[in-house]
Amino acid sequence: MLRSVNPATGEQIAVHEELSPTALERKLDLAASAFRRWRETSLQDRADLLGNIAYCFEENKDALARMASLEMGKTYRSANAEVEKSAAGFRVYAERGPDMLAPRMQPLTGGGTAETRWLPLGPVLAVMPWNFPYWQVVRFLAPAIMAGNVGLLKHASIVQGVAGLLEEMVLAAGAPEGLFQNLAIRSSAVAAIIADDRVAAVTLTGSEGAGKSVAEAAGRNLKKVVLELGGSDPFIVMPSADLDAAVKQAVTARIQNSGQSCICAKRMIVHADIYDAFLERFADGMRRVKAGDPFDEASDMGPLSSLEQRDTVLKQVEEAKALGATLLFGGEAPEGPGAFLSAGVLTDVPLDSPLMAEEIFGPIAMVFKAADLDDAIRIANDIPFGLGSSVWTRDEAEQEQFIRRIEAGMTAVNQMLASSPEAPFGGIKRSGHGRELGPYGMHEFMNLKTIMHPAAGSVAGSVATE
């Protein structure tokens, strides 16, 4: 059984039955059959379906948002925004997907042309986390549908209500049976599904450990895999920055989704000349953050996703303190039900501490002092992750230095980092490989086929060489 528990109250919401081996087999057969039909549909039919799914999300926004708030604790306000963003993601691929898949022609030096086309691969298995339970799925599903693939979802066990609603929305939009299916299974069943010949590829968003397991299974079976793993993103502030704007965005970037986002800014790296001013204002902003009932408009953030997740963050804070870090305030679990945790700030974290190789998935910020630009970049890169980054400077030369030298898949300039349907999303180093979103995310799970055409009036038959 898979249990949904309200992290704000500790009360059980629902119990979901796991798929039996026989039921799982039927779903895999259905996915393979659906793919054979869906791959033959026109690009316009695929785009029309995506537009219909977006409409279903918009029409059912309240029910969808409420389920996310109940199952994983995000505020109802942010859950609404996530549903709206998900609808926008479907619409982007509906409107721009056909152009992303347009064939390309390239003249050849020996005469003739090479045509390239993007063709679908087959059923794609998505192993998705609970923190953005709709948007994470849309990031794979919208491009998969547009590509002519079909989707199989292994969602986090604690958000099976969300997973069920996702499948309902796709079917309500008029999708053929089997185009998208939720698999109510545990992580232990994933490797066998990756090995199944009916599954063409796999994508995962999650922890480094989960990424290694999925990558190993995919490699063993020669399946394409995209991994979006953890991050400990730097938020660098230089003397020329608009300090008020930087501080405001730093607070938002650290506490969004209760600090449970891969691209939350987790390490504030501040130039020595403005360090004290930044820290004073940032600490004041973090102290004002109110954790409370996700359905209360006055709450800045809800609880963490579970008591286990809260305990993990508390342990990380205690370990940092034991190694010399200073907890200025926060990081406290209030009495009473729920997995609530107050926002907090750590300073003086040793750069060689184990915390630098971990991701704090909660509303605890680390603040570091940098002597200059080179030192800021050194601190930013001195971790095993490389997902996102944010840099705050009005000096264009400094901006270029950060863009070129920060080891990350993404850099936001004078703004907090956020994902967008149009822009490629992903990281390097131990933050994973491959990209989601934009045309690149769709092309990850397609066959780039080359078609060789002879020059006009020529006769084929020359000796070919590789």
Compact description:
Residues 3-451 form the Aldehyde dehydrogenase domain. With 466 residues, this protein is an alpha/beta fold.
CATH topology of the largest domain: Aldehyde Dehydrogenase, Chain A, domain 1
CATH class of the largest domain: Alpha Beta
Helix content estimate: 25-40%
Could you tell me the number of beta strands? 20
* Biggest beta sheet attributes: 7 strands, mixed
Query: Measured on Cα atoms, how large is the radius of gyration?
Result: 24 Å
* Number of separate domains: 2
Shape: globular
The CATH architecture of the largest domain: 3-Layer(aba) Sandwich
* Spans where pLDDT lies below 50 across 5 or more residues: none
Indicate the proportion of strand residues: 15-25%
CATH superfamily of the largest domain: Aldehyde Dehydrogenase, Chain A, domain 1
Mean pLDDT: 96
End-to-end gap: 55 Å
- Output the structural class: alpha/beta
Strand order of the largest sheet: 12-13-14-11-10-16-17
Number of helices: 14
Protein name: NAD-dependent succinate-semialdehyde dehydrogenase
Keywords: NADP, Oxidoreductase
Family: Belongs to the aldehyde dehydrogenase family.
Pfam families: Aldedh
